Sequence to fold (707 residues):
Amino acid sequence: MTIQQKLARYLDQGVVGFPVALASSVGVVMASPVILTVTSGFGMAGSTFALAMVIAWIMMQAQATTFSEAASMLPTSGAVYDYISCGMGRFFAITGTISAYLLVHVFAGTAETILSGIMALVNFEHLNTMMESSGSSWLVGVGLVVLFGVLNALGITIFGKAEIILTFVMWATLTIFGVIGLIKAPAVKLDGWFGSPLDLSDPSGVLSLIGMAMFMFVGFELVTPLAPELKQAGRNIPLAAKLGLTGVASTMFIYGAAMVHQVANVPMDPKNLAGPHLLDTPMAIPAFAGQVMGPFGKIWLGVGLLFAGAATINTLIAALPRILYGMALDGALPRVFTYLHPRFKTPLFGILVAVVVPCAHAWYIHGDLDRIMPLVLAAVCAWGVAYLLVNISVALLRLRRPEFPRAYRSPWFPLPQIISSVGIIIAIWYITPPGMNSRDIYVPFGVMLGLTAVYALVWTVFVQKVHPFRPVAIEAILEEEFGKAAGHESLIDEELKRAASLG
Amino acid sequence: MLHRLVDWLRRERAPRGYRPGATLARLRQELGQDRVGAECEPAGSTALACRSADGLQFTVRERIDAVFLAHTVSCEFRLPLALDIAAAAANPGSDPARIVIRHTGAVRRQGIACQVAGPDDGSLAAIARRLQDDAALQAALLPLDFRRCELRLEDGSWQLCIEHFGASEVVTNIPPMRRYIRLIAPQRQALLHSLRACQAVLAV
Fold:
């Protein structure tokens, strides 16, 4: 049987069904930075933000096909690191991987740290007033990070049993509040369904919102590594991505429309009309909850956000150190990340890094709420750079190795890669929404990316002692991963056996 | 209606993004790489039956640890042991007895400690002492990056169960990623040495 026939047979008898793929493509809905981003996006630009979300929706679908092709060609443990190594060399691989994993944590993790406590507390008036007066409400999130850091260091994991319930309750909460907010008589007179009407007079206005809109869909790409084992992957990957992204977008559209229908976006300081407005701040959440369900609504949303924040922080602290451990095994990070505490069997150094980075960052900016959205957008830049490098790598591999077997091929090559790459470049270029200082986004992102690049250069040249820009052969990666005797063909044999044992 | 919702919420289901058998498939490749490694065959969708070059037979099963928006799939290595101490462990109404093996030391690994957890008539404590005093077992376990290591009664027979820190897949939504943590060659060898050493101690 030829390798092409094996691939065709493998694709036909995939073992994972469509529902699993669909569940994997629904991204993070309830993280505090996502809620704040959608609130301020609709508050700031209404229907124009809705258009930006549609553009981001198209970009993410194009990106899904690229990730699927990369995963089916290189189903290795290194994932992004290996895709970029083969496409562009080790320097870009280390830069892209750290950008995707660590820098997103540095920025989005800090935003989550500051916001998780604040978003929950604002729903409890007395407690919030007390904490606000001392200016320390953001320390609640820092306290949660330290608490979960200590628990994870001691090998204690929580939220395990509650994963499904929490996910369902969070999604249901957002949808219920959104639907009731839409059904109830509007408290605000609006010019359009999403608040302010569509404004295309200044195209850069739309472009400046794409970065924010992209953040809505964070996490959808979990569906892409399923490509090699999904039944009818060629049809089901794009369909799952489309439906998953549409599900998230629908929830956000309903929530956003309800928010602007029920909460007037008034300036926080009546004397400063150009300053921050209510929907740019976490105070919009209790205003919305109170308007929709009264005091009970505030408690519901407050408790929900506290649990969601705590669980998200726990996830960051629990998962990231393991990833760092794996990267250290691959030689991309120093060996100290592989240290396990003798008694608790936990990667202490990785946990320390995962705790210190967002806490120190939150401390450095003193939990300043005005800095949250720039942090989220800096995370989008870091995330976008990694995506861009994967796009370029997959395109280069198509040109250099067109004959290499792929269990899934991105359709209409290179159109999806061009759409998502151009979209990402535009999103990063115009990342600053109206009223925000671009320096607040570009400077921290640029500094961190620069430091990462310097680290990658030093590490590849002086530690790994390899040519930093020479692409690594796909076979070399697969041989390293699956043993010298096992080429790509035997890997497919292996997957066929596994498919047979499952099916 | 409420009952059905509660039942639906309580229903056992795999975390989203979980790929049954995928982590084991990676492990199988890794174990087959070394001359001193092991040949494995699937034994169901989430288990492997393995045999090392020198005839050691063991099984591997996938274990899922889910947290909110993430999960870890790890591999548990199980070596059947010929121990005739079922009576001590089968104490109704209490947790089954087991022997927990862990590393000692505050910063660096200094040795191993074996402790009995659960009911014991003294026979498990004697086995724990034998394990702890065995130099070969200590030398094998010391470099091993295990998360859990214990002897426990399962399916009617005693088994040595080792869950390694590597040979696991981490799947998270934020930041979105999926990553297999390799079981590198020195750890593979330490693992097989540990299984052999334990079998040798308890065969005496």
User: Anything to note?
Assistant: The CA atoms of residues 15 and 34 of chain B lie 33 Å apart. DSSP finds six helices and ten strands in chain B. Chain B touches chain A through 58 residues (CB under 8 Å). The radius of gyration of chain B is 18 Å.
